[in-house]
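User: I'll paste a sequence; please echo it back and then give the predicted structure.

Assistant: Echoing your sequence first, then the prediction.
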Amino acid sequence: MRRLKSLITLSLAGTLLAPAALAQKMPMSHRMSPMGVLPGGISFLGQVDHAYQEALNAHAAVAMGMSDMAANHLSNVDMVIANLTQVDTSLDTDTKNRLSAIRQDAANLKGNLSDRTAALTGTTALVGRFASLMDQVASRNLGGGGGGANRPNMAVAEILADAAQSAAMGQEALAGRDFETAQIHVRDLTRHLDQAQRAAAMPMARVASADKQRIQALKRQAQTLDSQVSSRSNSAVRTAGNLVTQIGRDLPHFAQAPAGGGAGMPMNR
């Protein structure tokens, strides 16, 4: 369940979007920038975040002696970054170089996982590259006038993928009768759904009324789950699972939406 967000992301990047072909067909004004969103529900910040998570997963897998799993995560780092660089034609030279270095590190590491000590050092360095890239993105988007208007935005589909992950982690906690941890994840789920609702309300997002109602329905289910967790109801596990399933069913509607996004959406990560 902890890998749900990554699986959704890879599905969007590899199947729904077809990045290279899409970039060739789209006019320049509609290609992605760090402040915009493409069809397929992806954004610059969101994709970097997903690749970052895969790098962290690779490091953890190496630490636990699971080299095959680490190789899979490193492949995912390469795939997400490759898709991002193919689609986004507006990247500056410094960002391109940083992303290229990340891909090269991931490729080198994938072929040298047998030496656990060296692999731990390498994955630590890879995670460090992502940390540096995130710092660069933040410094560029938070500087100057405009405040929140200069912050990077996330696509509705990406926010809902985060919500699904929170619901799944809540379900996992509930299965272990850990209601305190479940409450934390359910509140995070609610926060993501609130954020998705705000993003969907932005004119540039071009979200259909029916899809806005889908988010509202998810919020009602989340409220029910919150009440069940607070009362330690045995029904909470099933409700959390139903939410994960429903978000999965709803996601394609948002992932297939036209290009949208805008600069006013705050970065709540």
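The first strand starts at residue 37 and ends at 38. Residues 4-150 form one domain.
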